[in-house]
Design brief:
heterodimer, A: about 450 residues, mainly alpha, Formate dehydrogenase/DMSO reductase fold, two-stranded antiparallel sheet, globular, B: about 50 residues, 1 helix, about 0% strand, membrane (chain B), transmembrane helix (chain B)
Chain lengths: ~450, ~50
């Protein structure tokens, strides 16, 4: 039914299977929307946030999706500024993933501010002394950049591309994409950094506080670096998952390997800097505020020293060492392990820097404050995941997200499209139909 | 926020923060304007480039 919209030379499941496939994420999304509406209409009393946890699950999710969405700006930088054409195979998908991550971050923020109708206040009544103002500026502007990078992909849809104006618009946008990519890298550098800077300037919270360079605490640079390092791993991870679900090879090996190699060296550099930062903080900064390292990791039911070891060693050095070796990158299981660990590592870092910072007692009469999110918080945090799956599925079906898909998955002569109607509406024989996973 | 807003103060914070935002938005806006106008002109001229 929708074969005229499907890219040329590729195979897609029948429409009914595609719609069936969307049922599960669609249901989860509806659950999330219901929780979102509860938060908007009844207020933030729907959450388990309190005076101790002004930042909670949402802000962690926000920081985490922004970090893993860093793959878009870093891949764009490599592709359009440094001219790494090997990434042509994956750049569209990196942009799509980045678009999903940043739109999700803005959605979460829209819920978190409680009164979204006043969201524009941060632009008009800006508090120029807040790093979060800079984050809001750069986040919004970078989302515009990602939208601009995503638009040409939409314009390449078979039917839209037939309209001369849209075809030329897409072509023109491709031509000056380097300008947008450079702007995106500039914006990303600052908002990723400022998110880290927020924890680093909390001089009343010795767990987060760091010294630094001029107005920027070391966490500013560590956040930017970790996003650039681990973001590409998330791009690889989602690509691999998509390949598993579609049972197709979608991206050339050299693109994955190149991205994994760069990511590996970036993670190694980042985790080395992180180790030095942690050591200096544990031996100099925290003691100067009256704290010993183990004060932050004891006398509570959850935050043990294990969390530091998992973040730095298991999810830091291990993936880095796998990815910098050719043997590790070429081994499928090792690659899967490395990218999963790297993504978990950066998410864990954000958790620690958002939630453990608030959990640690800072005064002698205080105790550790634990936090369990409400179901409304969980539902609204899962909402972006469902939204992401839906957008990826729709984009994959109707847009040429993977430019080498047709080349990597040549159609058998019997299923090859007619020259005039290039889209494939496969006849599904009884018992041999495409499984929903292929949708 | 613009310099003519009542809240505006001519200090480094406002100039750097708001200047940075306008700078980025200007590049994005000019870039898109260029693409749209060029696409419109090319379409009117009927330039035949139909494949990348």
């Amino acid at each position: 039914m929708d074969s005229a919209l499907i890219p040329k030379g590729v195979k897609r499941a029948p429409l009914w299977q595609f719609i069936l496939f969307l049922g599960a994420p669609g249901t989860v999304a509806l659950w999330g929307v219901y929780a979102m509406l509860l938060c908007w209409f009844k207020g933030l009393n729907q959450t388990n946030m309190n005076d101790a946890y002004g930042f909670a699950l949402w802000i962690w999710a926000d920081l985490a999706v922004i970090a893993v969405g860093g793959g878009a700006f870093f891949s764009g930088l490599l592709r359009y500024i440094f001219g790494k054409d090997v990434l042509k195979s994956i750049i569209n998908y990196a942009v799509l993933i980045g678009f999903i991550c940043y739109s999700s971050a803005l959605l979460i923020l829209a819920i978190d501010i409680g009164q979204p109708l006043r969201g524009w206040f941060i632009f008009w009544h800006a508090n120029v002394h807040s790093m979060l103002t800079e984050v809001a500026f750069c986040l919004s502007a970078y989302f515009c950049v990602l939208t601009i990078e995503y638009i040409p992909l939409i314009l390449e849809n078979r039917q839209i591309d037939k309209v001369p104006f849209f075809h030329k618009l897409g072509h023109n946008m491709h031509e000056i994409m380097a300008v947008f990519a450079a702007t995106g890298a500039f914006l990303s550098f600052f908002h990723q950094g400022s998110l880290g800077g927020v924890a680093g300037v909390l001089y009343g919270r010795p767990f987060g506080f760091r010294e630094g360079l001029f107005i920027w605490p070391w966490t500013f640079f560590l956040y930017t670096w970790s996003a650039a390092a681990c973001g590409p791993c998330f791009t690889i991870l989602v690509t691999k998952i998509t390949e598993k679900v579609t049972r197709k090879k979608l991206v050339k090996d050299d693109a994955i390997e190149f991205l994994a190699k760069v990511s590996g060296w970036m993670i190694l550099a980042y985790i080395t800097a992180k180790t030095i930062d942690t050591w200096y903080w544990a031996t100099v900064t925290a003691p100067s505020k009256g704290f010993a390292l183990m004060d932050f990791y004891s006398n509570n039911p959850f935050y043990g020293i294990w969390i530091l070891i998992v973040e730095v060693v298991v999810c830091g050095f291990v993936p880095a060492l796998i990815l910098i070796t050719a043997k590790g990158r070429k081994n499928n299981k090792a690659l899967w392990t490395a990218v999963i660990l790297a993504v978990v590592g950066v998410c864990l870092n954000r958790w620690v820097m958002v939630l453990q910072v608030l959990a640690v007692p800072v005064l002698t009469f205080e105790n550790w404050v634990m936090y369990i999110p409400s179901w409304q918080e969980i539902a609204t945090t899962i909402l972006p995941v469902a939204y992401g799956i839906i957008l990826i599925a729709v984009s994959y079906r109707y847009l040429p997200v993977f430019p080498h898909e047709a080349e990597l998955n040549p159609l058998e002569p019997s299923t090859a499209p007619e020259p005039e109607s290039a889209a494939v509406e496969l006849p599904v024989e009884p018992g041999q139909g495409l499984i929903p996973a292929e949708a | 926020m613009f310099p003519f807003s009542f809240e505006w103060i001519w200090d480094m914070g406002h100039v750097v923060f708001m200047g940075g935002l306008w700078y980025a938005l200007t590049i994005i806006g000019l870039g898109m304007t260029y693409c749209i106008i060029k696409a419109a002109l090319d379409t009117l001229k009927g330039n035949g480039d139909h494949h990348h």
